[in-house]
Design a protein that fits this description.
The protein is mainly alpha-helical. It is built from six helices and no strands. α2 packs across α3. It is elongated. 14% of the residues are buried.
Length: 148
């Protein structure tokens, strides 16, 4: 049973490695390494949260080929990224850039976490304070009668 589970895990973990087809790879290992580094930071526009190296969608294939064509033409890594951003928008980048128009994106998650922490802290404090309210005289007498 363990051997079968290990085999299934091995197959599942190796699936992304099959996304880059052998016919896409460049003969120059330096250019191929640069292409892989660029591709890791580019989002598949079909799969959304996968890099184009991990996706086997047709558009991801086209983007991988385009990256390699641009590198073969002599573009720098940044020129390739800039070309793809100009063509597809910043959404093609897996990690958004830090810029004034993306400031809300960078601040939103920590702000929501902070607000949530404040709400939980205030709620716990209020609940603790509610549990420590003084009993009225009638409640004290009723409690004493119940204890007897």
């Amino acid at each position: 049973m363990r051997a079968l589970l290990a085999l299934v895990m091995l197959v599942l973990l190796s699936v992304p490695a099959l996304a880059v087809r052998p016919d896409e790879m460049l003969a120059d290992p330096v250019l191929e390494t640069r292409a892989r580094a660029i591709s890791e930071g580019l989002r598949c526009l079909v799969c959304q949260n996968q890099s184009i190296d991990d996706s086997d969608a047709d558009l991801a294939h086209d983007l991988r080929v385009l990256v390699r064509e641009r590198l073969t033409a002599g573009d720098s890594d940044q020129q390739v990224r800039d070309y793809l951003v100009a063509r597809y928008g910043e959404y093609v980048l897996l990690n958004p850039v830090m810029a004034p128009h993306t400031l809300l994106l960078w601040i939103a998650a920590p702000a929501v976490l902070l607000i949530g922490g404040i709400v939980v802290f205030a709620g716990a404090r209020r609940k603790r304070a509610a549990g420590q309210t003084a009993l009225t005289e009638d409640e004290v007498r009723a409690l004493e009668e119940l204890e007897r």
